[in-house]
Amino acid sequence: MTAFDVVVLGAGPAGAAAARAAAVAGARVCLIERAVLPRYKTCGGGLVGISRDLLRHAGLDLAHLVRARVDRLTMTLDGRARVTRRRRDGQPVLEMAMRPELDAALVDAAKAAGAEVRAATTVTGLRDAGRGGVAVSVRGEPEVLAGVVVGADGTSGRAGGYVGVRPDLVDVGLEGEFQVPPAVAAQWERRMLLDWGPVPGSYGWVFPKGDVLTVGVIGAREHGAALRTYYERFVARLGLADLPRLHDSGHLTRVRADDSPLRRGRVLVAGDAAGLLDPWTREGISFALRSGRLAGEAAAAAAGGDPTALDSYPDRVEAVFGPEIAAGRVLLALYSRRPELMHAMMSAGPGAFGLFTRIVDGRSTIGRQLDRPGVRATVAALSR
Q1: pTM
Q2: How far is the C-alpha of 57 from the C-alpha of 84, rounded, in Å?
Q3: Selecting from 3.30.9.90, 3.40.50.150, 2.130.10.10, 3.40.1390.10, what CATH number does the domain 73-92+170-254 have?
Q4: What's the whole-number average pLDDT of the chain?
Q5: Collapsed DSSP state (helix, strand, coil) of residue 92
Q6: Nearby residues of 44 by Cβ (< 8 Å), 6 or more positions away
Q7: Architecture of 2-68+97-167+256-329 per CATH?
Q8: β-bridge partners, 213
């Protein structure tokens, strides 16, 4: 066997962040990815404030990665009641990146910190190797021995199944990347769209990325057929149906149940593999970057002889993400029942849009707002 202190499965934001954090802490790290890098990933690619801060901390050049900066938000209610708000402080609502480029830059940062990267390598299983750690089975190659494994291999990866991650919310996202002519690109310059959808709990989006528009919808998997219809209608309504599609794909997102494990023995899970994302917005990049760093730090500490590091990882994750996920569940339940109310609240005026931008920037959180007595009472009344 080849032996490492830490083996990370999956080279998305969570895995690359974990590999970099563990390598910076002095661990011998191997990052294993089944695809050939760089690879496409179904994702809107919107970077909120927390994500941008973490990427800068990792040494990434955002000026090189960002395809577009968005300071205007258009909102519609299933195509109706169109409202547009604009930031006037010169800051973006979101910055847009292509996931293959973002992931490649994060992997390069992990390499620069000392991690070994093995792409086009398929993990077929994990087994407890006793006091020696965890044996990682690899198709067509000898096993790799890890002191600690960080599973960041997505919702259908080996690590989540091994640990026993259980979701209680499962969504399906449908997304296309459309090559658009200059006139259409100009219409969307610096502007994104959110459409509060006709399927309970669903919404659609348009994210501009220069000569490419990322367009998608997401909602509960149980409404899969209705979501497909919504997606096709949404694309047609935008006038994009006949334009070239660089990609057209679907994916599942899962939110972990409150009592779902985050660790089994010397295997930790992070990012999508752990079911960590916002239940309402389904934003996952910031969750992946943060949980990956926590997992990488814990794995390196455990490999270095700290007996408490693995035990404390679930508590650290809960402290960071528990309140955010709980607040997202509250808003998702309200939004699923009253999408027209959400549209009215978001469209109410500069004050509502200002609060939205503070949350996106990371200067406030949904949980903090829901802790305000007046907001809590209003949400409770509307949820009845």
Answers
A1: 0.95
A2: 33
A3: 3.30.9.90
A4: 94
A5: coil
A6: 175, 205, 207, 214, 216
A7: 3-Layer(bba) Sandwich (3.50)
A8: 178, 208
